[in-house]
């Protein structure tokens, strides 16, 4: 396997990002979307999202690439309100084929570095309470459990709780 490259998304990645999300959504119920969750998104719409992210100081979308294929996407979404600008929300996904080889750890570490570089104080995330692999990763990187969000996910009419976790920088 070739080495993992982590880089910012650009507009030329739009179609591959949509394809990746449609595929990875069907590999796990730990994400905010399911299989083909982006099938109705146009390439132009995804290009616009990428452009907006890249034009913002406190948002970033990183791609993890192996052999010219997207294998992971990490995202930080910041807040615009003055009293919340010190916080960002983190979301990541890793293609199931690449679980267990530290891609998630490298992606989250890259997102943490970006947050530190722009003087963010708090990175927050939500993870399903039964996603032991994700929770273990976040704890390893210093995230703290700050509570439970009941009924955070609704998948096939079944509710699942989320663990709220923060990293204080």
Can you tag this structure with a few keywords?
alpha+beta; seven-stranded mixed β-sheet; 4 helices; 28% helix
What is the secondary structure topology, with strand pairs?
Elements (H helix, E strand, L loop, with lengths): L4 E4 L5 H11 L18 H12 L5 E7 L2 E10 L8 E8 L8 H15 L4 E7 L3 H9 L3 E12 L2 E11 L1
Parallel strand pairs: 4-5
Antiparallel strand pairs: 1-2, 2-3, 3-4, 5-7, 6-7
Helix pairs in contact: 1-2
Describe the structure.
By secondary structure, the protein is α+β, with helices and mostly antiparallel strands. 28% of the residues lie in helices and 35% in strands. It has a domain at 5-119: Gcn5-related N-acetyltransferase (GNAT) (Aminopeptidase). It contains four helices and seven strands. The longest helix is centred in the middle third of the chain and has 15 residues, at 103-117. The chain is globular and about 35 Å long. The protein starts with a strand and ends with a strand. The mean pLDDT is 95.
């Amino acid at each position: 396997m070739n080495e993992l490259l982590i880089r910012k998304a650009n507009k030329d990645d739009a179609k591959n990002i949509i394809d990746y999300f449609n595929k990875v959504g069907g590999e796990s119920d730990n994400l905010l979307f399911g299989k083909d969750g982006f099938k109705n998104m146009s390439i132009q719409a995804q290009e616009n999202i990428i452009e907006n992210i890249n034009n913002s100081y406190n948002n970033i979308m990183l791609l993890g690439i192996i052999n010219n294929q997207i294998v992971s996407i990490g995202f930080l979404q910041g807040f615009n309100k003055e009293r919340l600008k010190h916080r960002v929300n983190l979301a990541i996904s890793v293609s199931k084929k690449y679980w267990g080889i530290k891609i998630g750890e490298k992606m989250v570490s890259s997102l943490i570095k970006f947050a530190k570089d722009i003087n963010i104080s708090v990175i927050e995330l939500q993870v399903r309470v039964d996603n032991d692999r994700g929770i273990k990763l976040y704890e390893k990187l210093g995230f703290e459990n700050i509570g439970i969000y009941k009924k955070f996910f609704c998948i096939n009419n079944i509710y699942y709780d989320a663990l709220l976790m923060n990293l204080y920088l």
